[in-house]
């Protein structure tokens, strides 16, 4: 990677130490001195309603403040997503606010990129430098030469900045590296995407089928509440997973499928449901298109055929197909979240959508609801300028015709000279650690080294900060006001994020950073508001709500409307045919299979295992592993290996092992967890650990990084998603 990562961010000068002393911070357990911090749970003398950013779910929270210190965070009972409850991450938000390793002041690199040596700077100097670079690059190469990578709700201010600037290259890794195949697969079938929060009516489901999804481990607060409630009232549960997950332990059926063969199972399930007449005939006849073609396609996709690929017994496939169909239309095949697995992901997600269509679950109670949203007027901005070029996310020799968002991996690849007709010269990176979030780190570093300029905006010193020319410390979500959140949901609502306590150190809220940069590059007309509070309150009032009431409760509810056929809703489908498309003419016209075809995945080399990775309830991505509150519950990850194989290899519980992939990339040492709860052809680890930057003093050296082992990926030809479950590792004693 061209550097010793243990050199990460050496800071010259002493202003940072002064800031720590002045703020009263220390490196003690909670990050602060004082009785309130020593005794978490202390009641506050005031409570501020806002919403969380420890993951993407944006639950409503109540922050309790005593003597200027946030003492605890609880769920907001008025907020539709939290309902008065929080996941462990949300409750542990003070661990981020009071993390002693936070970025405290702007930094400017003082040596060549890769040596990670910085000096502290004032905001004026740092912003002047970024502004000068934005103007120079725009004037010499055009605004499209400056790309924005983003993640998180606070990125809205920087999206606005770059749209005003004229760059089309705004991309989020969450699309091509996570949810993109799901959105494309369902849109091709139903003419609508799943969105966030997902439009799954789990609270009314009579049967829930999870395929490689770990509700309860991947902690989506509202869904986990609904999932638990559904199980408590007797809903059926089918879990398809190579690993016996927590969800699998609650299931009537656990199907320990061979990794990479999920599409074969889905086709076999549909074969059984169609040939035995178990589908919702009236629903399919009324709303479907291409059923006859699907029936013909499924003729040879028998459970016996699927057994040769999945290793699941034919009688188990038949039994579970009948079980799933018995609860229609309140039987839901859950679409999942991170769906970038093997490069055939859009077609696999489309097969899930088609199976839901056969069950009649789209637009039906207990299946998928049709969401509502509030009408909230946009802020009256100056109209954005037109863009001179299309986004730079597609190589010259390939294209992804059905991608409906810009591909972060494509923009990254296009930055390397000679790989694209584009000439990207600079990146701004907001809230996403590209070195860990994009596959093939060596390629990411190669792109970074080709840049003229890189500026990162973050709360913690993530690895991407170490590669940057300028680092700007953002205030946490508890220290800033952001735009209003107006999602599509069962109940239409609007939530506000409010400043709970003033920003610590020299950190600044994102709205202020974007506004200051806008002024410096001649875009003041696009930032006419005084601050984010004035901005958001104008939108709140424009929607017809009292600002004081919304500030007090943190949320404003609209009038519920019908969300399913049982409510009297007439279903409409925004597909080309206006129907549920079991046979896609759009795919056929683009040169793809109109109905999914299964292609067997690559087998692990001798002595190696397929690498699988996932989440833990206390952690989201890699941003929480330095959080003292959360890491106390789950301090590091482990590698799951089948216990029989571990015994044959002479390995036991707690042994430290090193993982080496097919390209000789390594990760670890990391603890081994021999278990009967995983197949013999794969290993599993929780994502986010293995940090090698000493500036993250708590996370440093704990566990192993799956990202370091994802040196290969297979690109989905339909929408450009990067299938990352195609790497293999061997396990050796450290």
Structure description:
The protein starts with 9 loop residues before the first strand and ends with a strand. Among the domains are: 191-371 and 566-589, Dimethylsulfoxide Reductase, domain 2, CATH 3.40.228; 609-733, Barwin-like endoglucanases. Helix 5 (123-141) crosses helix 19 and helix 9 packs antiparallel against helix 12 (303-310). The strands form 7 sheets. An 8-stranded mixed sheet has the order 1-6-5-16-15-14-7-8. It has a 6-stranded mixed sheet with strand order 21-23-22-27-20-24. By secondary structure, it is α/β, with parallel strands linked by helices. The protein has 24 helices and 27 strands.
Shape: globular
* Beta-strand content estimate: 15-25%
How would a textbook summarize the main sheet? Answer: 8 strands, mixed
Query: How many distinct beta strands?
Result: 27
Sequence stretches where pLDDT stays below 50 over 5 or more residues:
1-9, 11-39
Helix content: 25-40%
Tally of helical runs: 24
Q: What is the level-2 CATH architecture name of the domain at 191-371 and 566-589?
A: 3-Layer(aba) Sandwich
Distance between the termini: 22 Å
Query: Which class do the helix and strand fractions yield?
Result: alpha/beta
Mean pLDDT equals 91
Q: How are strands sequenced across the largest beta sheet? A: 1-6-5-16-15-14-7-8
**According to CATH, what is the class of the domain at 191-371 and 566-589?**
Alpha Beta
Radius of gyration over C-alpha positions, nearest whole angstrom: 25 Å
Q: If you consult CATH, what is the topology of the domain at 191-371 and 566-589?
A: Dimethylsulfoxide Reductase, domain 2
């Amino acid at each position: 990677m061209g550097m010793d990562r243990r050199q990460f961010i050496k800071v010259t000068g002493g202003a940072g130490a002064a800031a720590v002393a002045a703020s009263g911070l220390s490196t003690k357990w909670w990050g602060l001195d004082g009785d309130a911090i020593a005794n978490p749970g202390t009641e506050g003398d005031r409570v501020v309603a806002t919403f969380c950013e420890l993951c993407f779910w944006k639950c409503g929270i109540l922050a309790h403040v005593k003597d200027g210190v946030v003492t605890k965070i609880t769920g907001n009972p008025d907020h539709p997503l939290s309902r008065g409850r929080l996941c462990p991450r949300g409750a542990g938000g003070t661990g981020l606010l009071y993390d002693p390793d936070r970025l405290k002041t702007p930094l400017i690199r003082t040596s060549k990129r890769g040596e990670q040596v910085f000096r502290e700077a004032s905001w004026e100097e740092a912003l002047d430098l970024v502004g000068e670079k934005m103007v120079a690059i725009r004037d010499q190469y055009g605004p499209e030469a400056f790309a924005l990578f983003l993640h998180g709700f606070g990125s809205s201010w920087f999206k606005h900045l770059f749209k005003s600037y004229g760059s089309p290259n705004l991309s989020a890794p969450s699309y091509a590296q996570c949810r993109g195949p799901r959105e494309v697969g369902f849109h091709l079938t139903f003419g609508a995407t799943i969105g966030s929060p997902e439009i799954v009516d789990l609270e009314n489901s009579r049967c829930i089928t999870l395929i490689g999804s770990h509700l309860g481990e991947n902690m989506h607060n509202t869904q986990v509440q609904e999932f638990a409630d559904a199980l408590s009232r007797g809903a059926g549960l089918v879990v398809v997973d190579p690993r016996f997950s927590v969800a699998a332990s609650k299931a009537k059926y656990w199907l320990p499928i061979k990794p990479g063969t999920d599409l074969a199972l889905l086709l076999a399930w549909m074969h059984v449901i169609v040939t035995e007449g178990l589908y919702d005939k009236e629903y399919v006849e009324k709303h479907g298109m291409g059923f006859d073609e699907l029936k013909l396609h499924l003729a040879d996709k028998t459970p016996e055929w699927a057994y040769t690929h999945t290793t699941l017994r034919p009688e188990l496939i038949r039994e579970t197909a009948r079980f799933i169909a018995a609860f229609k239309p309140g039987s839901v095949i859950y679409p999942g979240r991170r769906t970038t697995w093997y490069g055939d992901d859009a077609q696999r997600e489309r097969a899930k959508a088609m199976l839901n269509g056969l069950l009649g679950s789209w637009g039906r109670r207990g299946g998928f609801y049709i969401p509502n949203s509030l009408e909230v007027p946009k802020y009256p901005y100056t109209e954005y300028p037109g863009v001179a070029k299309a986004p730079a996310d597609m190589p010259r020799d390939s294209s992804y015709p059905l991608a409906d968002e810009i591909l972060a991996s494509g923009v990254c690849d296009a930055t390397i000279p000679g790989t694209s007709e584009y000439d990207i010269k600079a990146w701004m990176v907001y809230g996403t650690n590209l070195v860990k979030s994009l596959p093939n780190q060596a390629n990411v570093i190669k792109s970074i080294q080709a840049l003229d300029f890189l500026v990162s905006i973050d709360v913690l010193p993530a690895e991407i900060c170490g590669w940057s020319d300028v680092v700007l410390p953002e205030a946490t979500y508890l220290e800033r006001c952001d735009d209003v959140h107006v999602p599509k949901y069962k109940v239409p609502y609007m939530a506000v994020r409010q400043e709970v306590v003033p920003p610590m150190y020299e950190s600044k809220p994102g709205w202020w950073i974007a506004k200051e940069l806008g002024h410096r590059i001649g875009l003041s007309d696009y930032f006419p508001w005084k601050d984010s509070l004035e901005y958001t309150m104008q939108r709140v009032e424009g929607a017809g709500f009292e600002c004081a009431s919304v500030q007090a409760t943190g949320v404003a509810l609209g009038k519920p409307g019908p969300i399913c056929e049982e409510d009297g809703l007439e279903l409409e489908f925004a597909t080309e045919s206006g129907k549920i498309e079991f046979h896609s003419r759009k795919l056929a016209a683009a040169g793809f299979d109109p109905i999914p075809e299964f292609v067997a995945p690559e087998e692990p080399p001798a002595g190696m295992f397929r690498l699988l990775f996932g989440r833990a309830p206390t952690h989201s991505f890699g941003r929480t592993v330095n959080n003292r509150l959360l890491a106390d519950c789950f301090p590091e990850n482990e590698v799951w290996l089948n216990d029989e194989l571990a015994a044959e290899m002479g390995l036991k519980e707690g042994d430290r092992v090193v993982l080496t992939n097919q390209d000789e990339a390594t990760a670890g040492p990391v603890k081994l967890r021999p278990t009967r709860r995983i197949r013999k052809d794969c290993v599993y680890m929780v994502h986010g650990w293995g940090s090698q930057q000493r500036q993250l003093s708590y996370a440093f050296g704990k566990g192993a990084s799956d990202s370091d082992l994802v040196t290969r990926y297979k690109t989905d030809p339909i929408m450009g998603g990067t299938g990352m479950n195609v790497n293999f590792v061997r396990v050796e004693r450290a």
